[in-house]
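tool_log.txt
---
The assistant was asked to compare two proteins side by side. It first ran the structure predictor on the initial sequence, then on the second. Raw inputs and outputs are pasted verbatim so the downstream comparison step can read them without reformatting.
(1)
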Amino acid sequence: MNPFRQRCFVIGGLFAFIFLIYVCRLFFLQVIDQSYKMSASNNVLRYVTQYPARGLIYDRNGELLVYNQAAYDLMVTPNQLHEFDTALFCSLLDITPDQVNRRLQKAKRYSYYKSSVFLEQISAELYGAFQENLYKFKGFYAQTRSLRIYPHNIAAHIFGYVGEVDANTTKKDAYYNSGDYIGISGVERMYEPQLRGKKGVEIYMVDVHNRIKGRYQDGMYDTAAVDGNDIVLTIDAQLQAYGEELMRGKLGSVVAIEPSTGEILAMVSSPTYDPGLLVGRARSDNYAMLRADSLNPLFCRPLQARYPPGSTFKTVNALIGLQEGSITGLYTRYGCHYGYTVGRFHMGCHGHASPLNIVEALQHSCNAYFAADFRNILDNPKYGSIDSAFTVWRNHVTSFGLGSKLGVDLPYEVSGYIPTLSYYSRVFGKSRMKSLNIVSLSIGQGELLLTPLQMANLASTIANHGYYYTPHVVKEVVDSKDDVLAEFHQKHLTDIDTVFFPTIIEGMYRAVNSPEGGTAGIAAIRGIEVCGKTGTAQNPHGKDHSIFMAFAPRENPKIAISVYIENAGFGATYAAPVASLMIERYLTDTITRPWLEKRILTTDFINGTKK
């Protein structure tokens, strides 16, 4: 064959092969793969987001606590606007002409042809009147949204609130777009992925002027919104409401836990606020008002306030003393002559019988007993040095979950504080610390700081004879495919032997129920074995804080509780009655001491009224 003709066949074949590849690729792109067609069509399509209903929230007994109400975002497309009656428009939407001008200018700066939010979260009532006149306002249309509704004015710090996403969130998470809403605090924040559901979309064809011409391909590419998961809280709504009522007019907190599960039954932060204030268009103004309030109602005291535990901490030191052998059961007695005195040092105490054993010391909250016990732990020669002894002591304390975050399923929890050896080395010099220097730790003072949640968990741990479950406020995420609550079913053990807890429990029981008297006799409830421990925390800025922790009943306890009332004096005066009333209300659904309830309800420290 002619070499020239052979080369022509080769080159022709090569061109034919290349042509075939192009034909196949074009067939794939135009017939099989629709993505490029969709991409090319984007400039003539309008994507209307379908927002899912946010999950509902119930209490542990099935009572509805948070639900949704229809609301509307008014959208505007600037190039479709016609002249309209501004006075009528403003009166229907309850806005000013100046607001209309500013919002229209903002929309035009965003895009002259694309839609954007003109007015967000219009209530169903307001939109109902506006909808009848919507035809008069060309270029405006409504997009369905929803608002959170709270049938009971309780548990604001537990629920949290929902707000518009910021630019930083939209950059980090592709799910969110400008104008979307997200949980900002509380359960709404921590369980946002479960509560939010999944957005859907409807695609419309529009002309060059952004006017809708119909559904794109008859809705073939539309997706339906998927509603969020409902959530069942561990909270008992009636107990929560009662706790908030008892704490009205007081600064402080109440935390109640079911010891056998770690479920939080009530979590009161006082003062509180109406959760409905942070909903809708008024949210920003109301938030600014709450932020400016000198009583700081947005501050969640159960999780964020750090206080000295006072004499409630004697239970921990008693257990450590038993574990380390500085206390030998009921045989170890220490004397008390209105306090603990060493040289010129004196730690005061109130009058009671002396000497005392450990049960009696807890019953009467004897400072001298626990000062002696604490010093014997640190000065025990078996540890080799006070630094080593202090490290042993601190390790015992932290095994109760103190000094670190417990891991509650609410945001912004703080850790409390258990002083470290390095801290004292800076204060006193390395290896120069003496047990007398830090003896205030024996009675829950000094540098010790606990949150009210940690104190309630301490009561729960004692009730359980040495273990606890991480406190949590969500009992169930309905229809969830993932076990998001698995971590709350894990048992946490202290490093104190379980054989020592009955002795401490006996002391707490006598503090409330002993015929000879104890520091917490006011907390006794007929027919219920309450075990408790009072505390009075010194406050350099004013009157001492009133503290009480307890659990009941003694066997198979159903509730553990801590109460902290700022500037209220002795623990038995106000904190113990609040805890006792909460326990009785939860276990019996009745109150048999109306005189005590009335005294607490009519006491208002904030406005200066005390009974």
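(2)
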Amino acid sequence: MKRLLLFLLVITVTTSSPVADAGPAPATPSDVIRLLGATRMEAAAATLERVPADDPDRGFAEALLQFHYGDYDAAKAALPAGRTPMKDLAWLPVRIEAARLVTADYLERREQNFIYRFSPGVDAILVDYAIEALEGQRAAMARVLGVAPERPIVVEFYSNVLDFVTASGLPPEWVKTTNTVAICKWDRMLVLSPMNMARGYPWKDTLAHEYVHLVLSRASANHAPIWFQEGSAKVMESWWRKGPKPGAFALDPWSETSLAKALEKNSLITFDAMHPSMAALPSAEDASLAFAEVATAIDFLLRELGEEGYRRIVEQTALHGDVMRAVDEVMGLAGGGFEKRWTRWLAKQPLQQRTNVLRLKETLEVNAAGKADSEDEELDDVLLAHREMQDLSRIGDMLRQRGHLRAALIEYQRAAASEPYHSPKLANKQARALAGLGEVAFAQDVLQESVSLYPEFTPTVTLLSQLALDAGDVRTAELEAWRAIGLNPFDPAPHIVLASIYDAAGRTDELQREKTVLSVLKTYGGW
């Protein structure tokens, strides 16, 4: 009995006098940095709170976190004065200062789940049109990956290539060689203004593309390799406008031709060769081919497994860090070999080698998108490469300018027949002559064929919207005008189309937006 009482007494003393709760264990700056490397932003912020205030390297971890947040002043203030940066963070003070200098005079606008920054002037118009793409993409990726960052994501539009290179830290030769116009880095989106390309570029899809990178990095704990990242972003970049069932992925004609040729010649770029970045590939052609390859690889996975299977691959990758192992597990493959299996599948696809499509060169140039060619008198790469086609086209231009539309049309038709390659500029010239003759439906058919071959040739899309409005097809006119703005928002023509539509329909808010945009373009764009 005494032994029992003694035992109970021991239990009572032990349970009634617990050791004082010491709270969570202290953390180190390296813990915070590792979490940021895995894009675990919320966990990194919580872990920073557990780093002792007297830790001499705490400031580096805080500076890195603030840099990821896009608060460059706070990042600079957090850097420990007089201390050598921690291992692997020697770059941080340089990048913080570069970001501060580039964005010093930028304006900032918070809209829903994003913070937009841009230089004063014409880039201010980008925000109103970016909202639709990014909010739509946020919803699409939340459905696919279950990731929807609570903290607003910073999107910075850089007005020129120098600022883009300075802020991003990308080697200038990468940007120039592959025409890299946007990256997702440090949990932010860094984007070159479409003003820097003559016809703009698909900048709204590009925003959506970079957002895929951001959420995929978070969902995979930043373990997804470059081929999986870029393939996913390419396939999903248009999902913001396609609703809950985006459908099968389709390559543009030139990319499809390039891929078919590489497959035939056994000259595909390996997934390993794409590391560390598509921007590091030796040419724009190689980069385009690589994008086509990895897009079809992800398309293959989605066709085989659906969105649920794709998500399981990402979740497994986050757990053990190996996407190929995750693919094998989810697909039920034994012994790996996904890249070979994808190649075999690709070889069975009905890829077309089109003999009438050339790759149109794109060069980066300040204010290039602000140059007008309202009558399609300039030449494209196809016309420039073929002298007879070019000469006949110029004769047609002279006749059209003098009002001899049927004679002009004959010369344009002769030009088109002189070479096998389709010229989108020549198609536009033909369409203008046809429209002038009252044959608007025929003109629209010519343009539709042209845009099917060169879907990103902005002048054709813009002309389609104008002709549709002239023909009284308001719905098509509005859709094509929005499509044109998604390529080159700095051309006033599609905004004029929209303003006309909204004015006639009494859509006052939308009309006011277009009037404001046109005013900005007139003031800063030189139109």
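---
observation on (2): The chain has three domains: 29-102, 107-347, 372-524. Strands lie at 107-111, 114-118, 153-158, 182-185, 188-192.
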